[in-house]
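Before surveying the methods themselves, let us examine one representative protein, written as a sequence plus integers encoding its fold.
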Amino acid sequence: MADKRRTNGQSRSGTLNFKVEEAGELLPFLLQKLENRSRNSVKSILTRGQVKIDDHIETKHNYPLKAGQTVSVLKNKVAVKESTLIGMTILYEDDSVIVINKDAGLLTIATEKEKRQTALHQLMEHVRRQNPLNRIFVVHRLDKETSGVMMFAKSEKVKRKLQDNWKDMVKERTYVALVEGYVTQSEGTIKSWLRESKTHKMYSIQDRDGQLAITRFRRVKANKQFSLVEVQLETGRKNQIRVHMSDLGHPVVGDKKYGAKTNEIGRLGLHAKILSFEHPITGQLLLFRADVPKSFLNKVK
């Protein structure tokens, strides 16, 4: 006899709908329901933001499902129309700020070649769904190939307050870098003045005729090929970590621009792990963390 509680089926738009009948994790549920697709194909559907749980898009493989929920698999075009956040997840949001975990490969702001697929554009669409007058403002940036925690402001006033008081309000900015070779120093501080060349490459000088850059580092784990280094910024200059790791003789993995010879993880080996700051309105101390990518950890086992 057919189970009347099951509402599995395909809508007119091509969306597949599945009713959750018992608790479990999202990826195994999808693998069971989409048995004609490969595991990699199902993972790609998740990554592209094509999976909806009731009324929200979900990309986490281990998202806990509850009985009674509806899981929808959207066509790619439908997912784009849903204005899904692709390449990032929101860690925190209130009336003043949004904090995200950005994936490697996602631009912070638009370039001549890419206007829409950026963190700023997607977040702008996200807040305007609540109110068309809402806006998002860039406070600081991460390079396209750097992943991790970053923050945006929801008003010009908040943006200005954060930028004008950055040194006082930001209590911790910790990165992890996967670098080439064995870093012999267990910890240290790199200090130089940075300049930018005509080809937009940053480089260190020692005559103070540039922007002061101070980087503190600590070796976390290492083998002969690679080292995982925790980095804390005392200043926030363009490409600072990348330049200083190269100066140390251990360029960041995948960073050909600054001397890397390897790209074994298929991305830049730089990740913003912790951002801690005083809330610009309430003054409350907030701390956000993004887990170190597994590809980094696998190289220093």
Residues 1-7 have pLDDT under 50 and may be disordered. The longest helix spans residues 119-128.
